[in-house]
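Entry:
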Amino acid sequence: MCGIIGLISKKDVLSDLFIGMLCLQHRGQDSAGILSFDKKMKLVKKEGLVSTIFGEKELNELKSNVAIGHTRYPTIGSDFSVDAQPFMVSVPYKIGIAHNGQVSNYLDLRRELNLETNCVVSSCDVEVILHVFAHALPKEFSVEALFNAVKKVFEKVKGSFSVVTVIEGKGLLAFRDPMAIRPLVMAEKTVNGIKSIGFASESLSLTTTSHKILRDIKPGEAVFVDSNLKVTSKILAEEKPAHCMFEWVYFAGAESIIDGLEVYQARINLGKELAKAWIKTGLKADVVIPVPDTSRTAASKLAEEINLPYREGLIKNRYIARTFIMASQAKRENGVRLKLNPVQSEIKGKNILLVDDSIVRGTTSKQIVKLLKDNGAKKVFFVSTCPPIISPCFYGIDMPSKKELIASTNTVEEIRKHIDADFLLYNSIDALKKALNREDLCLACLTGNYPVSIPKETEQEFEKTRIDERKKH
């Protein structure tokens, strides 16, 4: 999972791009990059956060009327500097690219490309998209040729990918995989008669700079904006949509709208569904406490529905990154210890209804329950807005191995004992669908049914590759 943004205008876009990237920082914290075009391609990408990489000097050097930006959370590739996006090639002309998602046949495509031309130099899967795309382009540029090259990508590249691309001297291209697994939105604004058009992973990164959302990019659609801001779009491959449910549950910012559904409203609905399930248990709690930040919205609705006080019993340290997307188990464990500070007056002697968005590995959940009990909680009833995660993700969430997923080999009761909660409750899959009010979802991590088929040997190879990469960190 990463964050991407692309902007094009008749004036410099770097200020808006930088602000937009700051708004996407929650989608990836390992590295970031900006590629712009102004007579020549300019690229800056490094390990670290957006605010530490790009100062006034870098932004002035990158000034341009067209640019793309990326915030990275790795699912393939462990070298945070070498594998940082965007990437670029010079043949048939200069092209810069960034993506959000995961190429599920990356290992096969990398071997194939390197047998032919030895062109893939990093371990980042966007590079195979770039080379498949570039190899399909003729030397003479045309929009039709551009779309034909995207069609070739759709034919060869499998998995999830939302992409922004700068074409040297021509414009900005965006496209989304045929199942639209990862989000991609289009927006525009006009200031003093000068228009700006943008694409991004989340609406938040564009509305913050006063862009108005036009629409989501459709499954299998490519949209090209030329240097005169003429927009051309075409649907090149059409399959049944399979939007990742985890965007609404955890990953996306609460302020964003993903494929027509407000993330905030989705989380309100998830809390309402949890309340229905909780009432059926007959258990009694004294207070509802969320695990900050993503579960706050659901917890507030749950508390309202069951007429219990909602309290901030755990205060988040704002200077600690999101623990789920940290690259190693050791980092996650240390992150949990530093991330949450208990408010003892809201905890001591109380039966706590603790709300979290999900339980993935169980590491964080166990430590939070211990933290509450160490601070005097009488009982901790743990509830999760997301159903049990039982299968790996091959579309952009860093969950490559069943061994890491506590629900893949344990019953709810076994998980409860492992995290030392007094009671454990999950939303059901039906409740999740009802909360999101849609059927066009990727639920592979909950069901094991993948919208893009994953051969067993590929699954095993990818699992080994990712686990080996993590050991380096």
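Residues 3-241 form a domain with the Glutamine Phosphoribosylpyrophosphate, subunit 1, domain 1 fold (CATH 3.60.20.10).
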